[in-house]
Amino acid sequence: MDAFTIGLWSGSLLLMAAAFIKSRPKTFAAMKKSKKIMGNMLGDFIAIIFMIGLILTRVPPEAIRTFLGSSNTEIATVAAALAGSVTLIPGFLAFPLVGSLVNAGASIVPAVAFLTTLTMVGIITYPLESSEFGARFAILRNALGFVFAIAIALAMGVIL
Amino acid sequence: MKLLDTMKRNKLPSAVALAYVLLFAFKTDTAFAAVKNSAFYLKEMMIILPVIYMLTTVIDVLVPREAVIKNFGENSGMKGNVLALALGSVSAGPVYAAFPIAKMLLQRGASISNIVILLGAWAVIKIPMLANEARFLGPKFMVARWVLTVISIFIMGQIVQVFVKRDDMPLPEPDAEGTRTGEGKKNQPAR
Fold first, then answer.
1. Residue B39 domain-assigned?
2. Cβ neighbours of residue A85 under 8 Å, at least 6 residues apart?
3. What pLDDT digit, counting tens, does each position of A100-114 carry?
4. Cβ of A93 under 8 Å from any chain B Cβ?
5. B170 at the A interface (CB within 8 A)?
6. Spatial separation of the C-alpha atoms in residues A63 and A55, rounded to whole Å
7. What is the rounded distance in angstroms from the CA atom of residue B46 to the CA atom of residue B33?
């Protein structure tokens, strides 16, 4: 565990202790309520994880490199944004991958589009988001995430 | 029929389970590789899930409804947005881990724009990740993307707030003083 995660754990444990000190029955009731909220999502969490594993075997990070390095920037940007939307690669894999590409001279616009949709748009998590927050919310949030990811990418191309 | 009902209620898990069964039957190698790939994410989630559980609980006990409304509610303004951003930024784990916390805050009166900001920040802005980004792509790249992302998330929050109302969301009735009352009992028809 990294220091950051340890910090989160310690902070949460302290807050839990404070909650118990404040009111035991209230805390037990709240624990039940959280369990109910999370219980509904747990099956989907696990399903999402196994789906990521499956997608990563079909679309390995190296394949994404081809997308991002394409010479046609417009097409590459949209393709990269789409690739980022359906995959969920951890940052410690994505940053070195994109970094090596950009350092090799590839345009940063597709690279940024990919990095941003990777986290801002989640096709895989859409079913869960939709059932928990409603379809309207989930569709709008993800669609806007996609549009803004491309806007961010274009702006980065101008700035840097 | 009971199995069919369960599957209907859990569409995603059922679909994924089915995909794996087929894969194990026909392409065993790929199936094993996929399980191996999944293990990393499974571990990441197992580490963070108890934290989410504790935080969701703590919000319910320690943060009064009025405080959520005041700081995250419809009238919390810029302060609420910044607070939602800060809360999302000191997070860990995948964005869907934020769903329980977001839901608890919504139930306690947070505004939709702040929930969008919280989820956006949770997904994109992570302190350990920013360090990683600066290392591989340079500090200038990282800062520029951070600033643009924050602006985007704020605008997204405002847009979603305009088009999505609380009625569009599957939320239980707002709990008046409700942490103690089992809302489950209230909503379910008597058997």
1. no
2. A117, A121, A122, A123, A142, A146
3. 888 877 888 999 999
4. no
5. yes
6. 12
7. 20
Of B35, B94, B163, the CB nearest to A140: B163
Q: Which of A155, A118, A159, A152 has the alpha carbon at shortest distance from B153? A: A152
Neighbours of A151 (CB within 10 A): 16
For residues B167 and B178, the answer to whether their CB atoms sit within 8 Å is: no
| Chain A residues touching residue B86 (CB < 8 angstroms) | none
Dist. CA A21–CA A128, nearest whole Å: 34
- Assess if residue B41 is contained within a domain: no
Residue B152, token pair as written in the block = 């985007």
- CB–CB of A116/A94 below 8 Å? no
Q: Would residue A74 count as lying in a domain?
A: yes
For residue B36, is it within any domain?
Answer: no
**What pLDDT digit, counting tens, does each position of A117-157 carry?**
988 999 989 989 999 999 999 999 999 999 999 999 999 99
| Token couple for B20 | 């794996």
Residue A129 within a domain: yes
Count of domains observed in chain A: 1
Number of domain units in chain B: 1
Phi and psi at residue B72, to the nearest 5°: -125, 0
In a domain, B91, yes or no: yes
Residue range(s) defining the domain that contains residue B101: 47-174
ipTM value for the complex: 0.85
